[in-house]
From TrEMBL:
Keywords linked to the UniProt accession: Hydrolase, Iron, Metal-binding
InterPro entries hit by this protein: Calcineurin-like_PHP (IPR004843), CNP_phosphodiesterase-III (IPR050884), Metallo-depent_PP-like (IPR029052)
Membership in a protein family: Belongs to the cyclic nucleotide phosphodiesterase class-III family.
Domain Calcineurin-like phosphoesterase span(s) in chain numbering: 3-190
Lineage summary: Bacteria, Pseudomonadati, Pseudomonadota, Gammaproteobacteria, Cellvibrionales
SUPFAM superfamilies: Metallo-dependent phosphatases
Name of the featured protein: 3',5'-cyclic AMP phosphodiesterase CpdA
Origin species: Chromatocurvus halotolerans
């Protein structure tokens, strides 16, 4: 079985220290094979905030894959925003803005959907859509095929329709048809799991998107506490099992606890 932990929107600079320690304990207990950090790592893309994020990440087990969010680009330093928008991000996480991870039963593809010319909106372009689709088609049958980005592609609340990824109308069905199983994101600080469809709608493949809440920040929303997702996948004798668990921080017990488990039905034979 493979285990993936999704941590999103920690917004270092607004993090709650006791929640940071609780999440580090959870990560140590769960020992995920890989950890995904789906953007808005900092609140204002400052060096000190990235340094705090880097110290946190160095304490996580296994490899960590990260993508920038809109908050990871300088807001007030306009010169840096235009001339070197990812400078502080790259100092903390390296040059690669769209890393990949592959194992026997996992294929994880990352997209940078942030755009320096916009304050909060995100977008995907045709080159990104094609690159991800090509990699998805090359996946092995036993692999869980995942894509991580910051901006959402489905909205549960009407107020979040304006937060949807620009270009999702073409990207999502293209990726589903190419073999996508699970797309994970953040940005809106609301956790939920939602189905996705290909170009043929209900007659074609089905995939899923899993949104994560804010993992560490005081900027919680909708009465939902800090939370993370834990994704477990196994493939035995060509039979896939996949589950997305939501773990919420419980202040009374000072730990993260499982509050919801969603079993995903994966389309295969395609």
């Amino acid at each position: 079985m493979s285990r993936v932990m999704q941590i999103s929107d920690p917004h270092f600079g607004t993090e709650k220290p006791h929640v940071v320690q609780a999440l580090l304990r959870l990560a140590s207990e769960q020992q995920a094979d890989v950890t995904l950090l789906s953007g808005d790592i900092t609140q204002r893309a400052r060096r000190a905030q990235f340094a705090a994020a880097g110290e946190f990440i160095r304490q996580l087990p296994g490899p960590v894959l990260a993508v920038p969010g809109n908050h990871d680009i300088p807001l007030f330093n306009l010169i840096a925003r235009w001339l070197n928008p990812y400078g502080n991000y790259r100092r903390a996480f390296g040059e690669q803005l769209e890393p990949e991870y592959e194992s026997k039963d996992l294929l994880l593809l990352c997209l940078n959907t942030s755009r320096p010319e916009w304050h909060k909106d995100g977008a995907v372009n045709s080159a990104q859509i094609d690159r991800v689709a090509q990699r998805l088609r090359s996946a092995r049958p036993e692999q869980l095929r995942m894509v991580m980005q910051h901006h959402p592609v489905r909205a549960r609340e009407e107020s979040d329709l304006t937060n949807l990824l620009i270009g999702y109308e073409e990207a999502v069905p293209t990726w589903v048809d190419a073999g996508l199983d699970l797309l994970v994101g953040g940005h809106i600080h609301l956790p939920y799991v939602w189905p996705l469809r290909g170009h043929d709608g209900d007659a074609g493949r089905r995939a899923w998107t899993a949104q994560a809440g804010t993992s560490l920040s005081s900027r919680v929303r909708g009465g939902i506490p800090n939370s993370v997702n834990l994704i477990e996948h196994a493939c035995e004798q060509e039979q896939h099992t996949c589950c997305v668990e939501r773990w919420d921080y419980c202040a009374r017990q000072d730990l993260f606890m499982t509050v919801h488990s969603h079993t995903l039905v994966l389309s295969r034979g395609d």
